[in-house]
Amino acid sequence: MEFKHVSILFDECMTALAPERGGVYVDCTAGGGGHSFGIASRLPEGSRLICLDRDDDALAACRIRLADFMDKVTLVKCEFSSIGAALDSLGIEKIDGVMWDLGVSSYQLDTPERGFSYMNDAPLDMRMDRTSSLDAAFVVNNYSESELRRIISTYGEEKFAAKIAAAIVKKRETAPIETTLQLADIIKDAMPAAARCKESQHPAKRSFQALRVFINSELDVIRPSVEEAVRRLNAGGRAALITFHSLEDRLVKQTMTSLAEGCTCPPEFPICVCGNKPKVKLLTKKPIIPSHEEIESNPRARSAKLRICEKL
Question: Is 1 exposed, middle or buried (0-12, 13-18, 19+ CB in 10 A)?
């Protein structure tokens, strides 16, 4: 299947990063190369773009998409929490702009065999890096009921997590749960009928999101990646992050806010002893969201939020 992914908040990201200024830029979630293409096409001669992704399919698609710019593009297979190690391996100390487009790509959702979607029947997988040993089938069929409940509740904010976890464990006692549609039906049947009627989305959406986030450790890598990227930014360099659900956005907001804070000493201290100084300036007190026109043309953009900060 062709790697297709519509770049969300594209113009807003390009305005924030201003790659035409030149320097070294990093796309921490290269995907099919949409945002990377925007950055690379705007970079002046002598500038450089580093594209990170842990999905081999994404990197292959990115290489094709950026074929005309490969003289200033370097592709690196790694998750974005390894941005520091990736830059060190390339002999790069400082950068001038960095961005993240968090979550699952349209390609990953729309390729049934990747096992991310509750809309197509496929083997349970959900790994962004298919060389990883932990997949959705193992979690669903081997994790305890209490652990499944914790995952679905914590990462999916699903209020029926206990019922869903119990239904999964009961079903797998007779036979392993092997496909996405099997799991989606179990989740749907576990929810009260009245709650299903009120749903504006598929009943399995939150639970599938939870499993995906857990399997790929998506939340764990956000803070260390942002902190390391900001440490690497030159003064005036910017970081732009697109999130798609509340857990991601909350983490990004908290991380950026902590980086923008100055002294953290208790108010009763007569002088500062922590020595902490603001590292960034927040450019978005409230996140930038897609326009009505963008949402109409690409419904998957409806939950996107963009936050931007600038290195002091």
Answer: exposed
